[in-house]
Amino acid sequence: MTNARTVRRIIQSHRQREGAGFIVRRPVPTVGVEQIDPFLLVDEMGPITYAPGEAVGAPDHPHRGFETVTYVLQGEAQHEDSAGHRGTIGPGDVQWMTAGGGIVHSEEPSDAMKRDGGTMHGFQLWVNLPKRDKLMPPRYQEVKAAQLPKATTADGLAKVTVIAGEALGATARIETRTPIIYQHWVLEPGARVEQPVDAAMQGFAYVFKGTALVAGREVKDGQLALFSSGDSIELAATERAELLLLAGQPLNEPLARYGPFVMNTEDELVQAVRDFQAGRLGQIAR
Q: Which of 15, 42, 170, 174 has the fewest Cβ atoms within 10 angstroms?
Protein backbone atom coordinates (compact mmCIF):
# COMPACT_ATOMS: atom_id res chain seq x y z
CA MET A 1 0.00 0.00 0.00
CA THR A 2 1.43 3.38 -1.00
CA ASN A 3 2.02 6.33 1.30
CA ALA A 4 0.59 9.16 -0.77
CA ARG A 5 2.30 12.52 -0.56
CA THR A 6 0.43 15.72 0.23
CA VAL A 7 1.20 19.34 -0.61
CA ARG A 8 2.85 21.06 2.33
CA ARG A 9 3.44 24.44 0.71
CA ILE A 10 2.50 26.47 -2.37
CA ILE A 11 5.20 28.83 -3.68
CA GLN A 12 4.25 31.63 -6.07
CA SER A 13 6.81 32.33 -8.78
CA HIS A 14 8.15 35.84 -9.27
CA ARG A 15 9.35 37.60 -12.40
CA GLN A 16 13.02 38.49 -12.75
CA ARG A 17 15.32 39.86 -15.45
CA GLU A 18 18.26 37.64 -16.42
CA GLY A 19 21.13 37.52 -18.90
CA ALA A 20 21.05 40.31 -21.46
CA GLY A 21 17.53 41.29 -20.43
CA PHE A 22 15.10 38.38 -20.85
CA ILE A 23 12.38 37.82 -18.25
CA VAL A 24 11.91 34.56 -16.35
CA ARG A 25 9.30 33.26 -13.93
CA ARG A 26 11.21 31.86 -10.94
CA PRO A 27 9.63 29.90 -8.07
CA VAL A 28 13.01 28.83 -6.61
CA PRO A 29 15.06 30.39 -5.14
CA THR A 30 12.71 32.87 -3.49
CA VAL A 31 12.29 34.52 -0.11
CA GLY A 32 12.77 31.88 2.57
CA VAL A 33 13.55 29.09 0.08
CA GLU A 34 17.22 29.02 -0.95
CA GLN A 35 16.94 25.60 -2.58
CA ILE A 36 14.86 22.44 -2.70
CA ASP A 37 17.83 20.11 -2.25
CA PRO A 38 19.31 19.08 -4.71
CA PHE A 39 17.56 21.67 -6.93
CA LEU A 40 19.06 25.15 -6.81
CA LEU A 41 16.95 27.04 -9.34
CA VAL A 42 13.87 26.65 -11.53
CA ASP A 43 13.41 29.25 -14.28
CA GLU A 44 10.61 29.40 -16.83
CA MET A 45 11.83 31.39 -19.84
CA GLY A 46 8.88 32.99 -21.61
CA PRO A 47 6.69 32.35 -23.39
CA ILE A 48 7.70 35.56 -25.12
CA THR A 49 7.37 36.54 -28.76
CA TYR A 50 10.23 38.60 -30.15
CA ALA A 51 10.10 40.89 -33.15
CA PRO A 52 12.99 40.65 -35.64
CA GLY A 53 16.22 41.79 -33.99
CA GLU A 54 14.82 41.74 -30.43
CA ALA A 55 15.70 38.27 -29.10
CA VAL A 56 18.30 38.17 -26.31
CA GLY A 57 19.97 35.47 -24.25
CA ALA A 58 22.80 34.93 -21.77
CA PRO A 59 26.22 35.89 -23.19
CA ASP A 60 29.51 34.40 -21.93
CA HIS A 61 29.30 33.46 -18.24
CA PRO A 62 31.05 30.89 -16.00
CA HIS A 63 29.72 27.87 -14.10
CA ARG A 64 31.31 25.62 -11.48
CA GLY A 65 29.99 22.99 -9.09
CA PHE A 66 26.53 22.17 -10.48
CA GLU A 67 24.53 21.16 -13.56
CA THR A 68 22.28 23.19 -15.86
CA VAL A 69 19.37 21.49 -17.60
CA THR A 70 17.75 23.35 -20.51
CA TYR A 71 14.42 22.10 -21.91
CA VAL A 72 13.02 23.98 -24.90
CA LEU A 73 9.29 23.95 -25.68
CA GLN A 74 9.22 26.64 -28.39
CA GLY A 75 11.94 28.46 -30.29
CA GLU A 76 15.62 27.68 -30.72
CA ALA A 77 18.68 28.24 -28.52
CA GLN A 78 22.30 27.97 -29.55
CA HIS A 79 25.13 27.40 -27.13
CA GLU A 80 28.90 27.31 -27.10
CA ASP A 81 31.56 27.00 -24.43
CA SER A 82 35.22 27.22 -23.53
CA ALA A 83 35.69 23.48 -24.15
CA GLY A 84 34.83 23.93 -27.83
CA HIS A 85 31.31 22.50 -27.66
CA ARG A 86 28.65 24.09 -29.87
CA GLY A 87 25.10 23.17 -30.77
CA THR A 88 21.47 24.18 -31.24
CA ILE A 89 18.45 22.86 -29.39
CA GLY A 90 14.88 23.34 -30.59
CA PRO A 91 11.32 22.43 -29.56
CA GLY A 92 11.26 19.41 -27.24
CA ASP A 93 15.06 19.08 -27.02
CA VAL A 94 17.05 18.80 -23.77
CA GLN A 95 20.61 19.80 -22.94
CA TRP A 96 21.99 18.50 -19.64
CA MET A 97 25.31 20.24 -18.94
CA THR A 98 27.47 19.15 -16.03
CA ALA A 99 29.74 22.13 -15.36
CA GLY A 100 31.82 20.27 -12.79
CA GLY A 101 35.20 21.95 -12.26
CA GLY A 102 34.29 24.87 -14.45
CA ILE A 103 33.40 26.12 -17.87
CA VAL A 104 32.56 29.39 -19.62
CA HIS A 105 29.24 29.07 -21.41
CA SER A 106 27.05 31.14 -23.74
CA GLU A 107 23.32 30.57 -24.32
CA GLU A 108 21.63 32.68 -26.98
CA PRO A 109 18.61 32.53 -29.27
CA SER A 110 19.53 30.97 -32.60
CA ASP A 111 20.75 33.24 -35.39
CA ALA A 112 17.44 32.66 -37.17
CA MET A 113 15.45 33.80 -34.11
CA LYS A 114 17.64 36.87 -33.68
CA ARG A 115 17.13 37.77 -37.33
CA ASP A 116 13.47 36.84 -37.84
CA GLY A 117 12.00 36.89 -34.32
CA GLY A 118 9.67 34.24 -32.94
CA THR A 119 8.35 32.74 -29.74
CA MET A 120 10.70 31.43 -27.07
CA HIS A 121 9.51 29.20 -24.21
CA GLY A 122 11.42 26.76 -22.09
CA PHE A 123 12.95 25.95 -18.75
CA GLN A 124 16.33 25.96 -17.10
CA LEU A 125 16.94 23.90 -14.01
CA TRP A 126 20.06 24.03 -11.82
CA VAL A 127 20.94 20.78 -10.06
CA ASN A 128 23.58 20.76 -7.35
CA LEU A 129 26.49 18.33 -7.59
CA PRO A 130 27.62 16.29 -4.59
CA LYS A 131 30.97 17.23 -3.07
CA ARG A 132 32.66 14.28 -4.77
CA ASP A 133 31.67 15.62 -8.21
CA LYS A 134 32.18 19.37 -7.74
CA LEU A 135 35.41 19.40 -9.76
CA MET A 136 34.66 16.58 -12.23
CA PRO A 137 35.41 17.23 -15.94
CA PRO A 138 32.58 19.12 -17.69
CA ARG A 139 30.28 17.03 -19.90
CA TYR A 140 27.16 17.32 -22.02
CA GLN A 141 24.17 15.12 -22.66
CA GLU A 142 21.91 16.32 -25.46
CA VAL A 143 18.72 14.49 -26.35
CA LYS A 144 16.52 15.51 -29.24
CA ALA A 145 12.74 15.56 -28.85
CA ALA A 146 12.26 12.43 -30.95
CA GLN A 147 14.59 10.48 -28.62
CA LEU A 148 12.95 11.50 -25.35
CA PRO A 149 10.81 8.67 -23.92
CA LYS A 150 7.08 9.44 -23.85
CA ALA A 151 4.05 7.59 -22.53
CA THR A 152 0.27 7.96 -22.23
CA THR A 153 -2.23 6.58 -19.74
CA ALA A 154 -4.67 3.92 -20.98
CA ASP A 155 -7.50 6.45 -21.17
CA GLY A 156 -5.35 8.90 -23.16
CA LEU A 157 -5.97 11.75 -20.72
CA ALA A 158 -2.45 12.06 -19.30
CA LYS A 159 0.75 12.23 -21.32
CA VAL A 160 4.30 12.39 -20.02
CA THR A 161 7.72 13.19 -21.46
CA VAL A 162 10.44 11.61 -19.32
CA ILE A 163 13.63 13.64 -19.06
CA ALA A 164 14.92 11.89 -15.94
CA GLY A 165 13.53 8.96 -13.99
CA GLU A 166 10.64 6.72 -15.03
CA ALA A 167 6.89 7.15 -15.62
CA LEU A 168 4.19 4.91 -17.09
CA GLY A 169 6.86 2.36 -18.05
CA ALA A 170 9.03 4.87 -19.95
CA THR A 171 12.62 5.23 -18.70
CA ALA A 172 14.85 8.25 -19.32
CA ARG A 173 17.96 8.14 -21.50
CA ILE A 174 19.88 10.73 -19.46
CA GLU A 175 22.34 9.71 -16.75
CA THR A 176 22.25 11.84 -13.60
CA ARG A 177 24.87 12.22 -10.87
CA THR A 178 22.22 11.83 -8.16
CA PRO A 179 18.83 10.05 -8.45
CA ILE A 180 16.39 12.53 -10.03
CA ILE A 181 12.89 12.62 -11.52
CA TYR A 182 12.20 15.24 -14.21
CA GLN A 183 8.92 14.79 -16.10
CA HIS A 184 6.69 17.01 -18.26
CA TRP A 185 3.01 16.09 -17.81
CA VAL A 186 0.10 17.18 -20.01
CA LEU A 187 -3.25 16.57 -18.30
CA GLU A 188 -6.59 16.73 -20.11
CA PRO A 189 -9.88 17.32 -18.23
CA GLY A 190 -10.70 14.21 -16.21
CA ALA A 191 -7.09 12.99 -16.08
CA ARG A 192 -5.97 11.25 -12.93
CA VAL A 193 -2.66 9.45 -12.44
CA GLU A 194 -0.67 8.24 -9.45
CA GLN A 195 3.07 8.61 -10.03
CA PRO A 196 5.55 6.74 -7.81
CA VAL A 197 8.16 9.00 -6.18
CA ASP A 198 10.98 7.36 -4.23
CA ALA A 199 10.45 8.02 -0.52
CA ALA A 200 14.08 9.18 -0.23
CA MET A 201 13.47 12.03 -2.68
CA GLN A 202 12.31 15.58 -2.06
CA GLY A 203 9.82 16.64 -4.72
CA PHE A 204 7.58 19.30 -6.20
CA ALA A 205 5.36 20.12 -9.15
CA TYR A 206 5.49 23.40 -11.09
CA VAL A 207 2.32 24.23 -13.06
CA PHE A 208 2.88 26.42 -16.11
CA LYS A 209 -0.41 26.11 -17.99
CA GLY A 210 -3.93 25.90 -16.61
CA THR A 211 -4.74 24.62 -13.13
CA ALA A 212 -3.85 21.14 -11.89
CA LEU A 213 -4.88 19.13 -8.86
CA VAL A 214 -1.74 17.98 -7.08
CA ALA A 215 -2.58 15.54 -4.27
CA GLY A 216 -6.09 17.01 -4.41
CA ARG A 217 -4.81 20.58 -3.96
CA GLU A 218 -5.52 23.20 -6.62
CA VAL A 219 -2.25 24.54 -8.07
CA LYS A 220 -2.46 27.37 -10.58
CA ASP A 221 -0.31 28.56 -13.48
CA GLY A 222 2.99 29.89 -12.10
CA GLN A 223 2.77 28.08 -8.77
CA LEU A 224 5.04 25.40 -7.32
CA ALA A 225 3.62 22.74 -5.00
CA LEU A 226 6.18 21.36 -2.53
CA PHE A 227 5.41 17.81 -1.42
CA SER A 228 5.42 16.16 1.97
CA SER A 229 7.17 12.81 2.43
CA GLY A 230 5.72 9.66 0.88
CA ASP A 231 6.22 7.33 -2.06
CA SER A 232 3.64 8.54 -4.61
CA ILE A 233 1.90 11.70 -5.79
CA GLU A 234 -1.50 12.02 -7.43
CA LEU A 235 -1.89 14.35 -10.40
CA ALA A 236 -5.30 15.26 -11.81
CA ALA A 237 -7.06 18.01 -13.73
CA THR A 238 -10.54 19.34 -14.43
CA GLU A 239 -9.17 21.58 -17.22
CA ARG A 240 -6.19 21.18 -19.54
CA ALA A 241 -2.99 21.70 -17.59
CA GLU A 242 0.74 21.27 -18.02
CA LEU A 243 3.31 20.84 -15.28
CA LEU A 244 6.81 19.73 -14.48
CA LEU A 245 7.20 17.00 -11.87
CA LEU A 246 10.61 17.06 -10.20
CA ALA A 247 12.13 15.12 -7.34
CA GLY A 248 15.65 14.33 -6.23
CA GLN A 249 17.60 12.71 -3.45
CA PRO A 250 18.83 15.50 -1.13
CA LEU A 251 22.60 15.86 -0.85
CA ASN A 252 22.39 17.18 2.74
CA GLU A 253 25.74 18.93 2.29
CA PRO A 254 26.87 22.48 3.16
CA LEU A 255 25.93 25.03 0.49
CA ALA A 256 28.12 27.99 -0.45
CA ARG A 257 26.70 29.91 -3.39
CA TYR A 258 27.75 33.01 -5.30
CA GLY A 259 26.08 33.66 -8.66
CA PRO A 260 27.23 30.97 -11.11
CA PHE A 261 29.45 29.19 -8.56
CA VAL A 262 28.00 26.60 -6.15
CA MET A 263 30.43 24.95 -3.75
CA ASN A 264 30.52 23.58 -0.20
CA THR A 265 32.66 26.23 1.54
CA GLU A 266 33.40 29.95 1.30
CA ASP A 267 37.06 29.18 0.59
CA GLU A 268 36.02 27.07 -2.40
CA LEU A 269 33.90 29.97 -3.66
CA VAL A 270 36.84 32.36 -3.40
CA GLN A 271 38.99 29.88 -5.32
CA ALA A 272 36.32 29.55 -8.03
CA VAL A 273 36.23 33.31 -8.55
CA ARG A 274 40.05 33.49 -8.62
CA ASP A 275 40.23 30.66 -11.15
CA PHE A 276 37.71 32.40 -13.38
CA GLN A 277 39.48 35.76 -13.13
CA ALA A 278 42.81 34.10 -13.93
CA GLY A 279 41.34 32.50 -17.06
CA ARG A 280 41.62 28.95 -15.75
CA LEU A 281 38.03 28.18 -16.86
CA GLY A 282 39.07 29.07 -20.40
CA GLN A 283 37.34 31.30 -22.90
CA ILE A 284 35.09 30.71 -25.87
CA ALA A 285 37.04 30.66 -29.13
CA ARG A 286 35.33 32.57 -31.92
A: 15
Each residue's pLDDT tens digit, 114-159: 999 999 999 999 999 999 999 999 998 999 999 999 999 999 999 9
Ordered structural domains, the chain, with CATH: 7-248 (2.60.120.10)
Q: Is residue 13 within 8 Å of 123, Cβ to Cβ?
A: no
pLDDT at 264: 98
pTM for this model (two decimals)? 0.95
